[in-house]
Specification:
The chain is mainly α and 342 residues long. It contains 13 helices and 2 strands.
Length: 342
């Protein structure tokens, strides 16, 4: 007796001939599913621990009498401290300008095809990055012990004009020389890194158009290199602002030196250190804001629509809140139901 083909056994894993394919779940079944949000227990524990630590620190700042916040209030805006902040800003500004001007020259000397210029630039950077800043400052402060007079004349020949070293290079001058020369070594590497990041085809195209070499650097290379230079340069300037505190060894009346003088007289070490800390935080924040807007300006060539600034985001947030409040206050008009006119 034979078997019909319809009753033949189906191969394993295959649907039976008479079976229909599984139908997808209905929408009612999907609606009945319970959606459970993901649980981030570790994130909650970490957030709670951070909140507890921050709360303890804030509580200590408020309740610990050692901080002596009344002394902080008396000195933070005093005339002596404000003048010292002005000296700090002057040292930072002058050393930044001179350091980056010299650093730019050194950077292009290293990129030059002349082996003499390359060697001199590399040696300068190596020497001034190897010597600590405080050693350089003390050396320039005692330059008169090495050279009694500085003059102008024929090399290895007679001197036509000379002046006493102490009268030519005072305390502020020695500090500016030390800070500027130290900063130039780091600025040279920052500028060189930004320049070599520019596509070499830009220079080839400019040379094919007959643009002079100096104009290529000034109008083509440097504007494109600024996007790579600015973040590191801004960080270096902020470091220089705080590094000016090293000139206290030369008895220059900058911020940290004046704070030391004051707490040396009254013994209020902690509140006076907080005065210096508060001013450094404020100045660093202002430099960070300026860096943000300068970077945003030089990013215009890469971003056709730059991202909104924090001020623009705050204004947009306020507009959204006002729009949401206006929608809540607007009376709700009941819509006509279907078939109401029938």
């Amino acid at each position: 007796m034979g078997l019909s083909t319809d009753s033949a056994a189906a191969p394993p894993g295959a649907a039976a001939p008479g079976d229909s394919p599984a139908a997808p779940p209905a929408e009612d079944d999907l609606a009945s599913l319970k959606v459970v949000p993901a649980r981030h227990y570790a994130r909650w524990v970490a957030a709670a621990a951070v909140i507890v630590l921050v709360s303890q620190f804030a509580h200590g700042l408020i309740t610990n009498p050692v901080w002596e916040w009344h002394v902080f209030r008396d000195y933070v805006l005093s005339e002596t401290i404000v003048q010292a902040v002005g000296v700090t800003l002057q040292l930072t500004a002058y050393a930044t300008v001179l350091g980056f001007l010299l650093g730019t020259v050194l950077a292009f000397m290293r990129l030059s095809r002349s082996p003499v210029l390359q060697t001199v630039s590399w040696t300068y950077i190596w020497v001034f990055r190897s010597i600590p800043m405080i050693v350089q400052l003390v050396f320039w402060f005692n330059l008169s012990a090495l050279y009694d007079e500085l003059g102008v004349g024929i090399p290895f020949g007679p001197v036509f004009w000379s002046v006493d070293s102490n009268s030519l290079i005072g305390t502020i001058g020695a500090a500016l020389i030390g800070l500027s020369l130290h900063q130039a070594a780091y600025a040279a590497e920052i500028v060189r890194g930004g320049v070599i990041a520019v596509d070499h085809g830009q220079l080839e195209a400019a040379a094919a158009l007959g643009i002079p070499r100096l104009r290529q650097i000034r109008r083509i290379v440097l504007p494109q290199a600024m996007r790579g230079i600015l973040p590191t340069a801004g960080n270096e300037i902020i470091g220089l602002l705080k590094g000016t505190s090293v000139v206290y060894v030369m008895a220059i009346g900058e911020l940290f030196y004046q704070v030391q003088v004051i707490y040396g007289r009254n013994g209020r070490v902690i509140p006076l250190l907080m005065v210096a800390t508060a001013w450094y935080v404020v100045l660093t924040s202002l430099l960070s804001i300026a860096q943000y807007y300068v970077e945003r300006r030089y990013a215009r060539g890469a971003n056709r629509i730059p991202p909104p600034t924090p001020v623009q985001r705050a204004r947009r947030f306020v507009r959204d809140l006002r729009a949401a409040a206006a929608r809540r206050d607007r009376p709700v008009v009941p819509s006509k139901t279907v078939g109401a006119d029938r």
